[in-house]
Amino acid sequence: PTEFKKRLSSTAPNTNLPSTILPILKTSPHHNSLTSFLAYAHHTSLSPTSNVYLGTYYEYLCLHALRRLGFSLHRIGGRSDHGIDLLGHWQLPSLPHPLRVLVQCKAFKAKAGPNFVRELEGAFAGAPQGWRGEQVVGVLCATREATKGVREAVKRLGRPAVWVMLEDAGAGQGSVRQVLWNERVAAVGAEGVGVQARYVVGDGGAGVEKEVALTWEGKMWEPEMREGEAG
């Protein structure tokens, strides 16, 4: 137990962030990554079926997996977070500067409905200073594929919106299965960016998995990973 506490005490959050979101970062003295959260959950016997476990696990899963699409995100929270789980930027090959994004993570196993998209509207309204305006993109991450109703709701939304189906692929890895966005995302800078399926070899060479990646002018595109982000 003593060794565990010492190790977790070194997981201080990265403070090299925009000053506008520092006050609302969802920091914890116990974890700031999926690895440290799993260790903490094991140490405290946190039930894997509890809402706290499932929600926190999925947030970290999304934060990590979305890096492969060019996102750089941080967990936020508080009594007035308006359902926003992650906040940060989205670097696209079509833009010299990244777009500001806010992300809601939905770990529910039930079928996703248009109500999720309506909740995103509330997130836009309650976004912190620096993440307001017509150029901000809202992202919904869920474990289920977008239904026809969800697709239509995203299309109708008066803000730039992205839907991401992101599943737990095991071993602490998330797999992006579906990405779709409305015309307003293209208008703020995603023109020429597309989506294409690719096949990747699983950990340890076990099997081949289908995943979604972004394309730029018809060619597969991968963002440059900053130090400590790869993997």
Characterization of the model:
It is globular, with a radius of gyration of 17 Å. It has helices at 2-9, 34-44, 51-65, 115-125, 148-156, 183-190, and strands at 71-75, 86-90, 99-106, 137-142, 161-170, 173-181, 193-201, 208-216, 219-221. Strand 3, helix 4 (115-125) and strand 4 form a beta-alpha-beta unit. The relative contact order is 0.13. Helix 2 (34-44) runs antiparallel to helix 3 (51-65). The two termini are 29 Å apart. It has 231 residues and is an alpha+beta fold.
Give a nutshell description of this structure:
By secondary structure, this protein is an alpha+beta fold. Helix content is 27%, strand content 28%.
Could you give the topology of this structure?
Blueprint: H1 2-9, H2 34-44, H3 51-65, E1 71-75, E2 86-90, E3 99-106, H4 115-125, E4 137-142, H5 148-156, E5 161-170, E6 173-181, H6 183-190, E7 193-201, E8 208-216, E9 219-221
Parallel strand pairs: 3-4, 4-5
Antiparallel strand pairs: 1-2, 2-3, 5-6, 7-8, 8-9
Please compute the radius of gyration using only Cα atoms. 17 Å
**Strand adjacency order, main sheet:** 1-2-3-4-5-6
Q: Helix coverage percent of residues? A: 25-40%
What is the N-to-C order of secondary-structure elements (H for helix, E for strand)? HHHEEEHEHEEHEEE
Cα separation of the termini: 29 Å
Estimated structural class: alpha+beta
Tell me the strand percentage band.
25-35%
Please provide the count of β strands: 9
